[in-house]
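stage 2 :: seqdesign
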């Protein structure tokens, strides 16, 4: 098993992408040094470690530098066997998980960013509807897992899709609060409601989720640009 010595995580408490890595490290029971990046301005350390994208998170494993949250999560899963795997052993199941993780980032998260930054009310409503459509899609996918007796997208344990989607729940709460519009509701998303509660109270996740009001305050200070500086 690879040593966890000299593990450092450059990130920010506000970032859902950093949260993904922290959850992965927790599941593997890995000890790491957390280095907070403010992004205002971006530190020389961040610019040095991730000169291409200049975004958090960045994982330092000894003299190795790994960037991009989903890449980091898969790296942690492949290098350490000290806890449950985030990806299935079957190649097809891994491909499906990666598909949904990409859907969450490319479809749901992009709509969330636009909904937060958009000042035009009609345009913002369109993005909110896009978010709701994506949530219905994820509910349908989760219902398949529920019918098979699984509590998570990944099975009986938290997997890649759960980590990817679950890390966005705190920002969904921000959007709900700012717009006065509940996004995940029992009537439309019965499985998602139960899954979200299960995810948030998991010991590997609990304590990592920022308070909604604190996130709103941060986002206003950053003019909603902070989340876009992470991936």
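stage 2 :: out
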């Amino acid at each position: 098993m690879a040593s966890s010595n000299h593990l450092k995580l450059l990130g920010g408490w506000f970032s859902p992408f950093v949260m993904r890595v922290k959850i992965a490290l927790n599941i593997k029971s890995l000890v790491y040094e957390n280095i907070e990046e403010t992004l205002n301005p971006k530190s020389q350390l961040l610019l040095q470690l991730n000169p291409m994208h200049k975004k958090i998170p960045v994982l330092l494993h000894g003299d190795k530098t790994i960037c991009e949250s989903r890449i980091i999560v898969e790296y942690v899963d492949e290098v350490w066997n000290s806890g449950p795997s985030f990806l299935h052993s079957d190649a097809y199941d891994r491909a499906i998980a990666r598909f949904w993780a990409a859907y969450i980032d490319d479809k749901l998260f992009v709509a969330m960013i636009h909904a937060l930054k958009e000042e035009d009310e009609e345009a913002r409503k369109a993005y909110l509807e896009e978010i709701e459509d994506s949530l219905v899609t994820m509910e349908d996918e989760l219902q398949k897992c529920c019918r098979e007796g699984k509590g998570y997208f990944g099975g009986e344990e938290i997997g890649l899709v759960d980590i990817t989607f679950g890390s966005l729940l705190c920002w969904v709460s921000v959007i709900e609060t700012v717009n006065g519009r509940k996004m995940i509701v029992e009537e439309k998303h019965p499985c998602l409601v139960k899954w979200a509660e299960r995810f948030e109270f998991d010991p590997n996740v609990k304590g990592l989720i920022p308070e909604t009001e604190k996130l709103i305050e941060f986002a206003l200070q950053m003019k909603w640009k902070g989340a876009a500086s992470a991936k």
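stage 3 :: structure notes
- The mean pLDDT is 92.
- The two ends are 28 Å apart (CA to CA).
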